[in-house]
Design a protein that fits this description.
There is one protein chain. The protein has helices spanning 16-24, 36-41, 76-87, 99-105, and strands at residues 2-6, 9-14, 28-32, 48-49, 67-71, 92-96, 110-113, 120-123. With 125 residues, it is of the alpha/beta class. The longest helix is centred in the middle third of the chain and has 12 residues, at 76-87. It has four helices and eight strands; from the N terminus they run ββαβαββαβαββ. The strands form two sheets. Strands 1-2-6-5-3-4 form a six-stranded mixed sheet. The protein has one domain: 3-Layer(aba) Sandwich (Oxidized Rhodanese, domain 1), CATH 3.40.250.10. Helix content is 27%, strand content 29%. α2 (36-41) links the parallel β3 and β4. It holds the Pfam family Rhodanese. Residues 24-112 form the Rhodanese domain. GO terms for molecular function: transferase activity. This is Rhodanese-related sulfurtransferase. InterPro entries: GlpE_sulfurtransferase, Rhodanese-like_dom, Rhodanese-like_dom_sf.
């Protein structure tokens, strides 16, 4: 994990492996900041959706029980969300490096769309 200090805040960049392990142990809340269309086409099962275009840092829950880790398609939007959260006064926040593309490249499970039927399906198959 990479850590950056911004004022009094800590901004963490987690690897796919760190994110997957913590998510499997129910230690984090994983929030997808991609568009609803991207999420519907394929997403990490159990990840919540909070699109960047609707992001309001003040509406985030506290992190006393579980940490929040954001992800997007490549890591660009999730980093932007984290920096906005820090500007809004959140003192500890994280995102997943490489985003959903890195998650898929690491062969982590996700829900995709069966192109023949349009139905959701678990991947990798």
């Amino acid at each position: 994990m990479k850590t950056e200090t911004i004022g009094t805040a800590t901004f963490e960049t987690w690897t796919v492996a760190e994110t997957a392990d913590a998510f499997a142990r129910d230690e984090i809340v994983l929030i997808d900041v991609r568009t609803p269309q991207e999420y519907m086409f394929e997403h990490i099962e159990g990840a919540l959706l909070m699109p960047l275009s609707f992001f309001k840092a003040g509406k985030l829950p506290g992190q006393s029980d579980k940490r929040i880790v954001f992800h997007c398609g490549s890591g660009v939007r999730s980093e932007r969300v984290c920096r906005a959260a820090i500007e809004a006064g959140i003192t500890q926040i994280a995102h997943m490096e490489g985003g959903f593309a890195a998650w898929k490249a690491a062969q982590q499970p996700y829900i995709g769309t069966n192109m023949a039927t349009g139905a959701p399906q678990r991947a990798p198959a």
